[in-house]
Give the backbone structure.
Amino acid sequence: MGSSGPSWHGNREHVFIEIAKFCIALKKEGYSPILMPFWRRKMRVINKISEITDTPIFKNWRNPEKVIDLISTCSVLVGEKIHSIIFSAAAFTPFISLVYRPKCKYFAEIMGFEEYCLNTENLSHKKLIIMLQNLLDNWNKKRNQLIKNVIKYRTILRESAEEIKKDIKNLPLDKWSVNSSQKIRCLLQGSIASKYVKFINMLSK
């Protein structure tokens, strides 16, 4: 499970309880859930869920490569933080999105996983178990669909990042229509774009 802790819509205590019940239910069914933090400020809550449910926490969650490596070995990721389902898609691992903002649902939709979204405001561990079983029953089909969509959008993102880098690099100094501080910000964005391309290439390996 990829989570930042209870920053959800709806009753936070209710969501906390349902996530804990879900972990317990998974263990009873013979699964081996792992909690994967995606925001250090919520570690106290994640530690509490781990303590209550006796569910291990992935210790190397700050290392993107190790996060990808672990997710790629999982059958399914259940993610609340949008970064978690993005990483899951990058690893070609089918996911369930716990929707706390529209962006979570939108990303799930473009990946073809709109039927595997559950709003946190009416979260139920029983509904989550049913949804998980449905995804496992259709795992091969959904994974193939995920791979196809990820490759499609990965190509678009890579091309867009390269275009941004090219535009920033080749724009003549006298053609900048921004002040010096804005120009520095643009150049920094170019550097970020370069790092992003390297990251995308890492995910493609």
